[in-house]
Specification:
202 residues; alpha/beta; 38% helix; 15% strand; globular; flavin prenyltransferase activity; UbiX-like
Length: 202
């Protein structure tokens, strides 16, 4: 599946796996990117608990604003129970969807076509419409069920993009590690960031 050239309408889903710092960094990057005109943001109930534990942010109300530090007019937040949201329909022109971090439970539901909430349904829509779907899985070690579900999702058209930070750029903080990973994810869907690190072996 080829990425859309400079996608403008992005769906970002956050699930209950550890890694809230990744979600915060990608949300900031999308909000700051002038090429992106719409962000549909969904955080699962489990993600809210992880946000509270890892970033000390509580509550669903104004979650995106808390993460960004200011309102973002191009961002629309949805509840995971809202199966009537725009991104639940294939007629809605989403350019790409990113799940970061993606829990093994979410992977399982997507891989097996179990659209139990808005995140699963929006991902299913991307697969059936042949739109880019990036699943940034976050778990170790993998058991055979995890590996089988990754294979199923990949065969259906998703990109499995494990949340593994790079070290060759000599990051000085966890935020730098998360930011470089986010830059790689965004480049993968056609949104290379101007300040992204590029390996220069020579």
């Amino acid at each position: 599946m080829k990425p859309v050239s400079e996608p403008t309408n992005i769906t970002l889903a956050v699930t209950g796996a550890s890694g809230s710092i990744y979600a915060a960094e990608i949300l900031r990057a999308l909000a700051a990117d002038t090429r992106v005109t719409k962000i549909n943001f969904v955080a699962s109930d489990s993600a809210l608990r992880v946000f509270a534990e890892e970033l000390h942010l509580s509550g669903r109300n104004d979650l995106a604003e808390k993460l960004l530090g200011a309102p973002c007019p191009k961002l629309q937040q949805h509840a995971e129970t809202d199966i009537g949201a725009n991104i639940a329909s294939g007629s809605y022109p989403t350019d790409a969807m990113i799940v970061l971090p993606c829990s093994m439970g979410t992977l399982a539901s997507i891989a097996n076509g179990l659209a139990q909430n808005l995140i699963h349904r929006a991902a299913d829509v991307c697969l059936k419409e042949n739109r880019p779907l990036v699943l940034c899985i976050r778990e170790t070690p993998f058991n055979r069920i995890h590996i089988r579900n990754m294979q199923l999702a990949s065969d259906a058209g998703a990109t499995i993009f494990p949340a593994i930070p790079t070290l060759y750029n000599h990051p000085q903080s966890t935020q730098e590690m998360a930011r470089n990973f986010v830059h790689r994810v965004l480049a993968h869907i056609g949104l290379p960031q101007p300040n992204a690190y590029q390996w220069q072996p020579d």
